């Protein structure tokens, strides 16, 4: 019974991160106020040594592909453990650090009309 709850919780986490990625794609379509040019983007840094990329699909395409492959890999592992009744919970715990640091996989920062977009997170102006 505990395995069913762990599987359900893990599936909910996978779906949550996939929906967050889809939401990021939709938020990137909004009108970007800052950075509007390469010069402005060169002044913004998420990390001291790393200049952020412009918030458009062409600059972020490789990161989106890697993130989707990562989510697909985790979902495949989940399906395989579910189909073959492999009940090793330690396998699920290995993915937790990857989920926690997935925000750092996108070198992205933008201020849009609707809010602030940083990494895979979006903070809306409205509550």
What does the secondary structure layout of this molecule look like, with pairings?
Elements: H1 2-27, E1 32-34, H2 38-43, E2 45-47, E3 50-51, H3 57-83, H4 90-93, H5 96-100, E4 109-112, E5 115-118, E6 121-124
Antiparallel strand pairs: 1-4, 2-3, 4-5, 5-6
Helix pairs in contact: 1-3
Walkthrough of the structure:
- This protein is α+β, with helices and mostly antiparallel strands.
- It is built from five helices and six strands; from the N terminus they run H-E-H-E-E-H-H-H-E-E-E.
- It has helices at 2-27, 38-43, 57-83, 90-93, 96-100; strands at 32-34, 45-47, 50-51, 109-112, 115-118, 121-124.
- The protein has a four-stranded antiparallel β-sheet with strand order 1-4-5-6, with helices on one face. The chain has a two-stranded antiparallel ribbon with strand order 2-3.
- A hairpin with a 2-residue loop joins strand 4 (109-112) and strand 5.
- Helix 1 packs antiparallel against helix 3.
- The longest helix has 27 residues, at 57-83.
- The chain is elongated, with a radius of gyration of 17 Å.
- The relative contact order is 0.18.
- The mean pLDDT is 81.
Report a brief summary of the structure.
With 127 residues, the protein is α+β, with helices and mostly antiparallel strands. It has helices at residues 2-27, 38-43, 57-83, 90-93, 96-100; strands at 32-34, 45-47, 50-51, 109-112, 115-118, 121-124. The strands form 2 sheets. A 4-stranded antiparallel β-sheet has the order 1-4-5-6, with helices on one face. It has a two-stranded antiparallel ribbon with strand order 2-3.
């Amino acid at each position: 019974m505990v395995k069913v709850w762990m599987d359900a919780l893990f599936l909910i986490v996978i779906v949550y991160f996939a929906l967050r990625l889809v939401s990021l794609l939709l938020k990137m379509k909004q009108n970007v106020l800052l950075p509007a040019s390469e010069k402005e983007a060169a002044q913004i840094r998420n990390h001291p040594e790393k200049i952020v990329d412009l918030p458009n699909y062409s600059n972020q395409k490789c990161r989106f592909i890697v993130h989707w492959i990562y989510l697909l890999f985790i979902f495949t592992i989940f399906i395989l453990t579910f189909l073959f009744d492999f009940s090793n919970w330690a396998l699920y715990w290995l993915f937790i650090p990857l989920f926690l640091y997935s925000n750092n996989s996108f070198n992205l920062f933008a201020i849009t009309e609707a809010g602030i977009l940083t990494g895979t997170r979006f903070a809306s102006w409205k509550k």
